[in-house]
UniProtKB/TrEMBL annotation:
Top-rank taxon, per record: Bacteria
Molecular function per GO: 5-amino-6-(5-phosphoribosylamino)uracil reductase activity
Database matches in Gene3D superfamilies: Dihydrofolate Reductase, subunit A
GO biological process: riboflavin biosynthetic process
Pfam families linked to this entry: RibD_C
Organism placement in taxonomy: Bacteria, Bacillati, Bacillota, Bacilli, Bacillales
InterPro entries: DHFR-like_dom_sf, RibDG_C, Riboflavin_Biosynth_HTPR
PANTHER family attached to this UniProt entry: 2,5-DIAMINO-6-RIBOSYLAMINO-4(3H)-PYRIMIDINONE 5'-PHOSPHATE REDUCTASE (PTHR38011:SF11), DIHYDROFOLATE REDUCTASE FAMILY PROTEIN (AFU_ORTHOLOGUE AFUA_8G06820) (PTHR38011)
Protein name listed in UniProt: Dihydrofolate reductase family protein
Domain Bacterial bifunctional deaminase-reductase C-terminal: 2-177
Organism: Paenibacillus aurantius
């Protein structure tokens, strides 16, 4: 069975976006891009909620993204993408499949198919339902050295506590820290 790895950038105060959906504070530098390229080589599919998908689809296929980070952009554009959505009727970003049914059931089916791990980027609301169904196998949380104070809290609405087991903690020169966990037990 394939693993589903949730990757999210957070602030120290646990926010994944600032007011109005601002993510301009995400710290992305060469060291992060090396990590991202390696991570994208280890997966063969990307999972998104609609809102995250729309942001990614507006950025990665652009000439700016290809110029700024060609390795990550090429992989983001080529990998199969799966979007949990109730509202989208079509997707223009190459290699995108819309998951229009029950998101947890659709993603459980994807996990049962052969292949490497799947990466779930952002998509905090979708992640809540996947955590509840026990479908996330690993959490990779990049903590950015910043306190926003206001914005959207990661995994808001998770109804019960979940214990996690630390796999790795890695500090970057930027001050970001990557924390990797798996569900305990």
């Amino acid at each position: 069975m394939r693993k589903l790895i949730l990757q999210m950038m957070l602030t120290v105060d646990g926010l994944y976006e600032g007011e109005g959906g601002d993510i301009g504070w995400h710290h992305v530098d060469e060291e992060f891009n090396v990590y991202a390229a390696d991570f994208l080589r280890s997966v063969d599919g990307l999972v998104f909620g609609r809102i995250t998908y729309e942001g990614m689809a507006a950025y990665w296929p652009t000439a700016y993204a290809m110029e700024r980070d060609p390795v990550v952009a090429e992989r983001m554009n080529k990998l199969p993408k799966y979007v949990a959505t109730r509202t989208l009727t079509e997707a223009e970003w190459e290699n995108t499949t819309l998951l229009r049914g029950n998101a947890a059931e659709e993603i459980a089916r994807l996990k049962e198919s052969p292949g490497k791990a799947l990466a779930l980027f952002g998509s905090s609301r979708l992640a809540v339902s996947l955590v509840q169904q026990g479908l996330i196998d690993e959490y990779r949380i990049f903590v950015n050295p910043l306190l926003l104070g206001r914005g959207s809290r990661f995994l808001q609405g998770l109804p019960v506590p979940r214990k996690l087991e630390l796999l790795e903690a890695k500090a970057y020169r930027s001050g970001c820290v990557l924390l990797s966990y798996r569900p305990a037990g």
